[in-house]
Amino acid sequence: MHHRYDVLVVGAGGAGLMAALYAAKGDVSVACISKLYPTRSHTGAAQGGIGAALGNVQEDHWEWHMFDTVKGGDYLTDQDAAEVFAKDIIDAVYELEHMGLPFSRTPEGKIAQRKFGGHTRDFGKAAVERSCYAKDRTGHMILQTLYQQNVKAGTTFFNEFHVTDLLIEDGRCQGLVAYELSTGELHTFHAKAVILAAGGYGRVFKITSNALTLTGDLMSIYYRKGLPLEDMEFYQFHPTGLAKLGILVTEGIRGEGGILRNDSGERFMERYAPTIKDLAPRDIVSRSIITEIREGRGVGRDKDAVNIDLTHLPREVIEGKLAEITDLARTYLGMDPVKDLVPIQPTAHYAMGGIPTNLDGLCLSDGSGGTVEGLYAAGEQACVSLHGANRLGTNSLGDLVVFGRRAGIAAAKYARQVEYPDMPETGDAQRESVDLFERLRNGSGKENAAAIRKELQESMMNNVGIFRNGKDMAAQVDIIKELKARYQGVTVSDPSRRYNSELIEAMELGFMLDCAEAMTASALNRTESRGAHDREDFTERNDAEWLKHTMAYKNLNKADDVIIGYKPVALKGFTRAFEPKPRVY
Amino acid sequence: MTQTHAQASSAPVSASVPMLQLKVKVLRFDPEKDKKAYWTTYDVEAQAGDRVLDVINHIKWYLEPSLTFRRSCMHGICGSDAMLINGRNRLACKTLVRDVAKSGGTITVEPIRGLKVEKDLLVDMEPFFDSYKAIMPYFINESPAPAAERIQSEEEAERMAHSSNCILCACCTTSCPIFWVNGSYLGPAAIVQAHRFIFDTRDEATQQRLGIMNQNTGVWRCRTAYNCTEACPRDIPITQLIEEVKRAVMYGQA
C-alpha cells in the first residue's frame, strides 16, 4: 500500500509523541508509525523524574542546570544544545503539567522536586532538588499524558509497523518503507519530512534496563546508507539495576537518601566522590561499583553486586515516592526495601550517541555542516549532542520533550514550504526491503538468530562494557565480523505472513550487529577516557586531541569496515560558556 | 506433542541454583492453517526466579520459532504480555516460575479471553483501545493556563495515584465476566481511565465524563465480581475505583 503525509514520525515514545503533537499544530498532515502500541514504548520505564530549574524546593537557575549538563557530559556536550535545553525545559515541564500530567506535589501544591545525580546548586557546590517527579513513575506519566494528548488531537497511528528502509536520494528524504506485522504487507510512505524518534539499542548488551524491542533499527538503517552515527562509544551504564536482571532501579532512591554499601556495609561512595557521594553522576558511580566488586567487596552469591540501603528511610517515603521500585524489588527479588538491603549492579541503559542532528533535529550527513534535507531525529535515537560523554539522570526525559518539540516544529515548517519530493516506483522503493526478507525467509543456512544474539550480548558486555581496553575491543571487532558472517546463515523457519515475529526478531538482529559494529569501532578509536568511555590503557581525558565528536560511517565499498571522522564540539552556548575543567565531584 | 529439553534461565548457570523441570502447555492457534486451537507441551528447565516470559522466550528462541506473543519491557511496565497463566490473567514478565509451578509441575499459558485471537497468545487489541478512546482519555481544561503550574494539593494528587498507574495491559477487562458476554461494555480498564480524569481537580469536563459513565455501556454494567481487582498486575483496587465512579455518577459530582 501507498500512503502520503506531510510529516511522518517514526516511534511513539516521548520524543515521537511530542514531535507528532507539535507537527500537527503546524497545520500539516501527520502520521506516527510505531513498531509497538504507543503506550508500550520504553519512555514508560523511566522512573525518577525530569530535571528543570523550577526552584520549587530550593533556589535554582537554568545556568546551573546548563553547567551541570556540560560538566556531567565531561565537556563533550555541545553547549549551544545545553543552553537551549536548560532554558526550554522549564516551560516544557509546565506544559506537561498543563496537559494534565499528575505530578507529585510540594506542600504548597507546586510540582514536587527532588535531588538527582550530578544536579547541583551554584555550579557544583551541593546537590539541588531539580528533578520534577510523579512518584517514581515519571516516564509512565509522560508517556500516558502525551499519548492522551495525541488521542485528543486525532493523530493517525500506524501501530505495529516496522520500518525496514528510509528512502533518501540526492541528500533528500522522500519517505520510508514499513512492514505491517498483522498482514506481512510492505507499505510505502511518501512524505515531505520524516522525524526519527524510535529509541535506543540497549539490547546489544547482556545486562540491560532496555526493552527487548530496543534494537537500534533506525540508527542502523541510517548507517547502512553511508550516513554517520555520532559518539557511539558513549554508552551509559546505569549504576543500579536489580542484580542479575538489570531492571532499572531509579536514581531517585539515592535522591531520597538511599545509600550504596559494599560487603562490609561501608558507604563506599565517600571515597570516590567526597562532596556529593551517592549523588555523583552515573558513569562515576557505575565505575565505583565495579571497582568495589573487582576488589572483592561485592555481595551476593557471585559477589558481583553491591547493596542499596533504604532501611533508614520512613516506610511512607519508600512505599509512596518509591512505590514502583519497591514493587520491583518485592516481585523479582522477594526483598522488601523497607527492611532489606537490595542487591544491585550496573545495567546498560542509555545511548548518548546516535543520529547526529542540529538544534532543530535536522539530520547531519557529515561532520562539517552537511544535512539530509527533510529528515529529522530526536530523543535517544538522536545525538544533538546534549549529553556529551555521559548523560545526567532526568535529562533523557527532558531531551525527549524539548528536542521532540523542536523537531516537530521544524519539520512542519519545512513541510509547509516545500512540495512533495519525487518518489521512486513502488518496486524500486521496496527493493531493499523485499531483498532483506527474501534472504531471511528463503536462505539455506541453519544458524539460530537467538544464539548469535546471545553471543553478541555477552561479548559486548565483556569487551565494550564499563571498563574498556584496546586488546578486548580489537577482539570484539573480530567477534562482530564473525557474528555478521554467521548472520548471513540465519533462515526464518516460520513461513507465515501474518504476525511473523520470528522474521522481525531476525531482522532486528541485523540492526543490532550494525550498532555494535559502529560502537566498537568508535570506542577502539578513541584513545582517552572521558565520561562513560573509560579505557584502562588510556586512563586520562585528553582535551588536546580528543575534545571532538566521533562520526562513524559504514564503508559501503568494503565489508566490515568503519570509517571514522570527527565533528567539533560547540564549546560555547548563546550567552554562557563553560571552559573544560577536571571533572571532580 | 512434546518438545525436547532445554534450559530457559536468563540468569547465569550456577551450580548452587537448582534447575526446575517443567512442562509448559501452550494453547496454539494460527488461523492461516488451523481450524481450531490446540495444546502443545514443551519440556524446559528453568530457575525458580525466572520470569514466565523468560521461559516462553526460550521456547520461541530455541524450540518453536513460530510461537507468537507480544512482549517488550520485561518488567511489568509496558503492558504487552498479558496472558492467561495457570488459569489467571497475569503479565508473563511479572510472574515468576516459583509463583506458578514446582519442579515436575506444569504451567499452562493461553491467550487472554474476550478478544479475538490473531495468532497463538496474541489477540486483537483494537476493541480494547476503542473502549479506552470512548471515555475521552485526555485532560480537559480550556481556561487560560497560568505561567507556571496549576496548583493541586498533595491529597488531591493522591486521589489519582491508583488510576493513573494503569498500563492498559487489559488483564482486568479480559477477566471480567460481563465483558465476556457483552463486548459493548466499556470494561474496567476504561473506567479506571475515566476515574483518573473525573477525580483530577484540575479537569473541567467532569459532567461530560459522568455522562459517558452513566450510559448503558458504562459503570452500571459492573456486577462487582472483583475479577478485575484480582487480575491487576499493578495492584490497582479497580472494583473500589469503579464504585467511586458509580457514586460520582449518582451524586452528579466527583
Automatic annotation (TrEMBL), chain B:
Pathway: Carbohydrate metabolism; tricarboxylic acid cycle. SUPFAM superfamilies: 2Fe-2S ferredoxin-like, alpha-helical ferredoxin. Its cofactor is [2Fe-2S] cluster; [4Fe-4S] cluster; [3Fe-4S] cluster. Keywords: 2Fe-2S, 3Fe-4S, 4Fe-4S, Iron, Iron-sulfur, Metal-binding, Oxidoreductase, Tricarboxylic acid cycle. The keyword Cell membrane does not apply. It is an enzyme of class 1 (oxidoreductase). It comes from the Bacteria. CDD domains: fer2. Its EC number is 1.3.5.1. Belongs to the succinate dehydrogenase/fumarate reductase iron-sulfur protein family. This is succinate dehydrogenase. It comes from Deinococcus grandis. The lineage of its organism: Bacteria, Thermotogati, Deinococcota, Deinococci, Deinococcales.
